[in-house]
Amino acid sequence: MSAYEKVLLARAKDRPTGLAYIQNIFTDFIELHGDRRFGDDPAVVGGLAALGGMPVTVIAIEKGADTKERLRRNFGMPNPEGYRKALRLMKQAEKFRRPVVCFVDTSGAYCGLGAEERGQAQAIAENITGMMALRTPVISILVGEGGSGGALALAVADQVWILENAVYSVISPEGCASILWKDPKRVKDAAGCLRLTAQDMEELGVVERVIPEGEKDFAAAYQEIRTALSDSLPQLLALPPESLLASRYARFRAF
Amino acid sequence: MNLMGLFRSPQNELEKGGKEAEDAGIRNSCPRCGVLLPLSEQQENMNVCTACGHHFRINPRERVSYIADEDTFRELDGDMMSRDLLGFPGYDQKLRNAKLASREKEGVACGTAQVEGTPCALFVMDPNFMMGSMGTVVGEKITRLFELATEQSLPVVGFTVSGGARMQEGILSLMQMAKTSAAVKRHSDAGNFYLTVLTDPTTGGVTASFAMEGDVIMAEPGATIGFAGARVIEQTIRKKLPQGFQTAEFLLEHGFVDLIVPRAEQKRAIARLLRVHSGKPLPAACPPEAGEEERA
Ligand SMILES: [Zn+2]
Fold first, then answer.
1. What is the value of pTM for the model shown?
2. What is the C-alpha to C-alpha distance for residues B255 and B250, in angstroms, rounded to an integer?
């Protein structure tokens, strides 16, 4: 499969969105709203859930499963208050020493007027440093599109996993083709050059694990993620926060 | 310091005889007011338009000469150069062109220096090197500078100018946002001071990481500062952007910048901020200097 075909798969409308992962992997989800500063961003869903007997804070970028939902969720392009809500919930998790699991699926942070007025860049920067310093384990899973800084803002984690057909990139292939070659038609070339597939991520050391996707549905992927989280989170929780932070620093320092 | 030249009225001889004065290389036309400035006049005025106050983009060496005390800048990692890590078509050529255009080896100059006698670590990004785009070497140099500053308990002063991440390095350039931010955070947690000075343009991944992470965020007048590029926003919202959107003044108004300081006043402002954070007692309060406005 070509890199561009993977991009199309990662964007496919029938692909499960963030909420589906929360609902199929965890139980007892209680959604919590708002950033306590400006508003509640429907593009970012977060709250409390259980993984077996373990309380977990879960956060997902939600694109919306149908047209009406997609409009309401701004197609999964968060505004600053989405990132700020996520960070608020992560700090809450830190206080109660709950692990955090993030599901990332976005074409990017929203490029709108209000987003700039309310400090999109500052919100992303604050999430990056905030997650870097979080004294509780974080695992981020790229489940669809991982679009640039808007994805990284929820993917500064102890471990980063990616679905087999998800992608992660510094810029969309369309953006790359038009900026670099002034030719939007070269999008397929751009997708190949950017090295954005899950397999590239594994090769470049950007992710620890690639989650296989089933032939028919995502049931096997949900199961695999549940098993892997049940395995990894207790191990990370057992580490003293200082060594957790030191490994997280080293993980990103290596790039 | 020549503060008066900054705001004098736009009435110099060049405005009258503009047509025949178009001799490139000797005179520069101001992109904001269109006046033709003799290069010597522009340079004497710290590359600020004497007619309208427009701040021209400048290279790191000029910047260092405006800020650091004479002969105090000690460059670090000056020989570090980017490689084409992903085999990205045309990147090698782009790097060669950038080196020629900028006469630098990479898009940021890092080192230690003194500002009015206070030691600091200093980084200055380069608009002439692929528009200050952040690849692995830019990220590495800045990270190393913060690590050194943490070790030696030095404050960091950083001048940002960037079009964003360097897409020819793909996901590895995105990771630089996390790497640099991690080093900034450690520096900060150790109680050290970090001052960013945002200059034209500061956008994309650099704004969304270390540019916005300063304890104090200063900006140059008129600088474009934002996350998304103006064109991308216009395409997204299908509307023209209002005048002055994403300028330093706009960010000040919206609470994302602490202060806007013209180039001619930056050294003094930076020195004062460094002194406040130096841990040493401040000199006894002195009366306002001549020329400074009276605060009643
Ligand atoms: Zn001018």
1. 0.93
2. 9
